[in-house]
Specification:
Blueprint (H helix, E strand, L loop, with lengths): L1 H35 L3 H27 L3 E5 L5 E5 L12 H10 L16 E15 L4 E13 L15 E4 L9 E3 L16 E4 L3 E4 L2 E7 L11 E10 L7 E5 L7 E2 L9 E14 L6 E13 L2 H20 L9 H23 L9 H28 L8 H8 L1 H5 L3 H23 L5 H46 L1
Parallel strand pairs: 3-11, 3-12
Antiparallel strand pairs: 1-2, 3-4, 4-8, 4-9, 5-7, 6-10, 7-8, 10-14, 13-14
Helix pairs in contact: 4-5, 4-6, 4-10, 5-6, 6-10, 7-10, 9-10
Length: 496
Amino acid sequence: MKLSRSLCILFFASFVIESGLSQDNSIDSGEKVKKLKPSKKDTKDKKKLLQKAKVKALNTDTKDDKLDKTIVQTTPTSTTIKVPAVTDAPSPMETNWRVKLRTHLLTPYKKNVHPVKNHLDKVHVDLGMALIHLDLDEKKSILEVDGWMRLNWTDEYLRWDPKEFSNLTQIHFGADEIWRPDIQLYNNADGSNLQHYGSTHFLVFHTGVVLWVPPAKFRSFCKIDLRLWPQEAQSCKLKFGSWTSHGSQIDLGLFHNMSTVERLNFYTENKEWNVLSSYASRNENKYASVPETYPDVTFTFILQRSSPAYRASIILPCLITMLLVVSSFLLPPSAGEKLTVNCVSFIVCILFLLYFQTALPAMSDHIPLIVLFYSNTAALVGIAIVLNICCISLARERRYTGPPKWLRNFFSGFVGRILCLSNYYHQVSDTHQRLIVEMDDIHESPESDQPGRDLNAHGQAGSGVMRDWVLVAAGIERFFFLIYTIAFALVSSVYM
């Protein structure tokens, strides 16, 4: 009985336990199903996490692929260690010391500040020039110079010990890497070109000395003196100085103390201008508005025109014109050819004056001598034409009254001998002797022949009167021949 009771109790207890467990399991399974059904937010988050995981996996794969030179070492615990491969280190001979030196010098460098450690110190800049070619345009009063400028100064921030940089004693820098002086051409004639020197590099020495040799083309104003044109000499200057710094900040000097402008081996001579001399000088300018002084370096060029073309086309026609005008006074007083010669000379002078008007600039302070010579020659030729007309009129026009006695005696006496009028004087004296004899014969002859003899005597007297006027005309022309000869001689001596 006891056994049956115990079995019943066990059976009942197990039944109760199983029923409780089944209920719990049903509840748990419902909750699990609810948990297994994910929300939309969970699915989105999971997708984002999956994408991030894929990106990380791809990055790790690419990094592993780039590590080409790796050595994989295995350990007893089956772990792997990635060690980068060791490359060959550069030897000291392969080190670029120029790069290190540039980095050493330019890292703390300020190119907009004067290169002195004490702001009260001045920078000494030396200027020089080497000439390549020059040309002068006298009509525009502009001198064009092609050359090499030579500048050097000391930069206190560009010093180094060559022993620390593999014995490097010099290095190059670009045009915009270090400080450079603002040296400008004061009498610049090209306002649109203020950057004369371009972008030429600098050569820097370990002592801090900077050498700069830029090629440049300058156009400067030049005061032209055309008094002796076309055989004149001109003096033109190029004046250089700092544009913003005074003498207490930048002091100028001559490059290597050279007082001349060097001509390079490839200097090209100008076909019209010869450089007689060229020199450099240092000057100091003091202005009333400021207390400081402003130094400058001036290069002076003495130029001499040497052109045979001008001599052949201008000087020679001038001399020929002068000779034609003078020689026209030697022709007989009644010769009309002298008018033709003088008219041609006058036209030549006028044509040359028109050429000078177009070829030469208008000068307010002086006039070229050649222009004065041609203008005076034109005036003298005009006067000569008037004199020729008067003398031809005196010699050709029929006159019955003689010239004034004092005028006849003036040209028939001592002055006549100086003017070589003896031929005309003897003709007049012979005529007078014949007239005197004939007049005596007329007085002694019978009265029946008086009317015919009067006509003959009157005709001979008229011819004698004409010879007197011819003498006077010849004397006037010879007198002006002397005056013109002296005038042309003086003008030629001054000009030539």
